[in-house]
Amino acid sequence: KYIAYTDTHYNIWITNLETKQSSIIATDSYAHPNRSMNPKWSPDSKWVAYAKQQESHFKSIFAYNIDSKKTMRLTDPLADAITPVWDASGKYVYTLASTNYGLQSGWLDMSSYDPEVTRSLYAIVLNAEDKAPVLPKSDEETVEAKTDSDTNKKENDNTSVVVKIDEAGLLDRSIAMTLPDRNYVALLEGPKHTVFVAESVPNTRGLTVHHYDVEKLKATEFASGVSQMVATADRKSVLLNQNNNWHLVDTKSPPKPGEGKLKIDIKTKLDPKAEYKQIFKEGWRFMRDFLYVDNVHGAPWNEVYQWYSPWIDHVRHRTDLNYVVDIMSGEVAIGHSYVSGGDMPDVDRVPVGLLGCDLKLNKGAFQITKIFNGERWNPEIESPLGLPGINVTEGDYLIAINGKMLSSNTNPYQLLEQTAGREITITVNNKPTATGARDILVKPVSNERSLRYIDWVEGNRRKVDKLSNGKLAYVYVPNTSGNGFTSFNRYYFSQQDKKGAVIDERNNGGGSAADYMVDVMSRELYGYFNSKANDNRPWTGPIAGIWGPKVMIINERAGSGGDLLPFMFKKKNVGPLVGTRTWGGLVGTWDTPRFIDGGRMVAPRGGFFNVDGEWDVEGIGISPDIEVIQHPKLTSQGRDPQLERAVEEALRLLETQEFKLKAEPKAPIRWKRPEGYDKDN
After folding, report:
1. 147-176: per-residue pLDDT in tens?
2. Is residue 173 within 8 Å of residue 136, measured between CB atoms?
3. Within 13 Å and on the Cβ side, how many CA atoms surround 647?
4. Neighbour-count burial of 569, counting CB atoms closer than 10 A to its CB (0-12 exposed, 13-18 middle, 19+ buried)
5. Which of 72, 314, 521, 650 is the most exposed place for a label (fewest CB within 10 A)?
């Protein structure tokens, strides 16, 4: 009779199929990219439960009654509660709740990266007359005679279930189950008095699903490696995707390996022209419905559709379609409106092995001019020629690969086809001849990006160290995502003995809002704690930090989070900006659905405006305090004008802002007794 569903704008709708009337029963407080406001029907179809964000950013569980149209809060707002599930009996609603959610509520902020969130399983006792499932139970067993027909009738009959919710005292009836708190992420309904709990286990593919028996207060591992899981309406079976295979299994016991595996051999006949028209229209609608503002930046959107839709009749390849969709979205004049992917033809690529070095043709032979050794403390980076014992040095010549001689007419990379990750033999010599050459066993890599990246970073660090005579730290921030977080923590805190720092965010690819970085860099000293060791060098309070001047380098290829980082750096007056104006693309890329064939078009979400109530950064960028252009004449000589100028500025600031530790004061005398104490008997 009723259906419940959500829409683009974070509303929950209820539609009466008899009257054809629809109404909104709830709207989320924020446009969070993780759409957690998913309605769940009660066993008697009279209630809808859902999780809703509060203004505090914590989520609470609510229930809406179809008949009375009344909404009740089921959980206390001081915990973040998600994924409500009704027990088949109608007596309980299960939820996962966290009281250490804290900084995770700032999902866009980098300060949410480190804190670990754990959740516990709770049962909300809906009726004040019902008992908590964790009440002590007698060891004595009561036996009742039951027939199979009676059992089947009870299990399959939900018509007798009537859900009753007593609002008085309801928030005090959320009862913790005996399940250790962990990183649980979702619940799924099971048979009566059971619930499935999905856990995200570190360094494990997919989710681990536990079957929790509420009567026995016992959890059993049901399945691992699960990416999707759906229960049937009678709760007797679940369809789960496990390790990229679909299985239909019974809910009563954990499935055995391979049990219920479905043979999926589906072929779909497509009409490419019709699909292209559908995708184009979806892209047009995405920009209309998902863009961060409703006016499509003033573009006459209906007319835009008329302008570009005739082009689709001439599309003959999926890349052509991406081109048209991209041009159409360009009418909005906004950054991050990426268009990519789709149902492309399969292309067989030939993997080429790389030796992690630079080669140049010299005297008719290929000379190794630079070896990228992976630097230090980088376990994920492999250097084919940088390992101790390889005994290849810069200046050596590459004479042959797998016994095939190289000449000036040979492309060495042609001989390295299909060698990535495989042991091969290279022949090298310290002169451009085979006479006296030696054979060496090496394993080429498929990509040198990491090798060359870390070489550039470490080269800059050494350059800054040399130019500043060891006074300045160099910290590179490649993006404001995980890699940038790791790089900042690695280089900033390991150089706390420096007098100041050059923060390089050139080419920053963005990601999150780097509040964490700016908070750390703008820390203020509040005092010291003495350290009774060696020369009594004290601990600063706080301990972690670089207390001298900081200079940030920016350029036109830094954008998104790479725009916001220097914006905040400047707003907090951490230090000057050196380089060129940033890209100017500060809108979000989350929440736009995929096209039917898996392609992507981004209708940017979450535009940024400043504390004065003005749209900012997007289309503007962040201008440097000191503009420095990377002139090709200088960069071709191995110079880095922006880096050099940043060091110069930091050293200038050091002249007046150098931080010097306070010496430990003279030991205090706090012993005290009244005068004449020594004459008392």
Report:
1. 555 555 554 455 689 999 999 999 999 999
2. no
3. 21
4. buried
5. 314
